[in-house]
TrEMBL record:
InterPro entries: NACHT-assoc, NACHT_NTPase, NLR, P-loop_NTPase
Entry keywords, A to Z: Leucine-rich repeat, Repeat
NACHT domain boundaries: 77-207
Protein name: NACHT domain-containing protein
Species of origin: Muraenolepis orangiensis
Keyword Repeat: yes
């Protein structure tokens, strides 16, 4: 769990990590009513959100993401959380995993299995069974023979970084967890529920990549912390003084922006 406890974000100095529990502030996820994906550039999404009036939303606590919403009998099997770069989607998944591992939340879940698409990309040309894929990433699971007997959560972080085809339309149906195939076939069948249907899936992505997963395969779409919340003081001054269209293209660039804006910025000259 050290991988999820120590992070190079938040209050850490350059080159140093910090304990996630030391700086994490509880953030609420909100369910998105509309299935429409906003493909507008992320900087413009931040600017637009900062101008929007407050709207009535139903917040979802991180520890409740796999629990039924009010009026629901069953929780959603597959959840997608969208948000611009640097908003904290990966931190949400790390905090969820850490709280589960430390016994603080979701103790009805037997296994939380976090993957990143960046790691899965490296296996694009290889074949595994689902069991072999789990053993490849989590050697401690080698003694588990029947995952259908347990409550399992798969976290698939960073869909926007996926370089696999995710061919939901043409990939064959795959239901045998012991039979080898491509990682792409495993993922598409896992997400659409043909492979290990008892599992729950949490996918994170930037908004423009969300449509790589068919809407019928996603039970609930949520948004990370409101993008207006990361319109840090001084953002407008940075925008006025430079071409910021690519400023938050990566989490690293977004983190750099936060570090810069923590220092006082000179007041922008007011136009008459």
């Amino acid at each position: 769990m050290q991988k999820f406890r120590r992070v190079f974000e938040g209050i850490a100095k350059a080159g140093q990590s910090t304990d996630l529990n030391d700086f994490y502030t509880e953030l609420f996820i909100t369910e998105r009513v509309s299935g429409e994906v906003n493909k507008e550039h992320e900087v413009r999404l931040i600017e637009t959100a900062s101008r929007k009036p407050a709207k009535e939303e139903t917040p979802i606590k991180l520890e409740d993401i796999f629990k039924p919403l009010p009026g629901q009998d069953q929780p959603s099997r597959t959840i997608m959380t969208t948000g611009v770069a640097g908003i904290g989607k990966t931190i949400l998944t790390h905090k969820f995993t850490l709280d589960w591992a430390e016994g603080k939340a979701n103790q009805d879940i037997h296994f939380t299995l976090p993957f990143t698409f960046r790691e899965l990309n490296l296996l694009k040309e290889k074949e595994f069974s689902l069991m072999e894929l789990l053993h490849h990433f989590f050697i401690q699971t080698k003694g588990i023979l029947r995952y259908d007997l347990f409550q399992v959560v798969f976290i698939l972080d960073g869909l926007d970084e996926c370089r696999l085809p995710l061919n939901f339309q043409n990939n064959p149906i795959w239901t045998d967890v012991t039979k080898s195939t491509s990682v792409d076939v495993l993922l598409t069948n896992l997400i659409r529920g043909d492979l290990l249907p008892s599992a729950r899936i949490w996918i994170t992505t930037r908004p423009a990549s969300a449509n790589q997963i068919p809407a019928k395969c996603v039970g609930m779409v949520t948004e990370g912390p409101d993008v207006a919340a990361v319109s840090y003081p001084g953002f407008a001054a940075v925008k006025e003084g430079s071409d910021a269209d690519g400023l938050v293209d990566t989490d690293l660039r977004a983190e750099m922006e936060v570090l810069v804006l923590k220092d006082p910025t000179p007041e922008s000259p007011k136009s008459s």
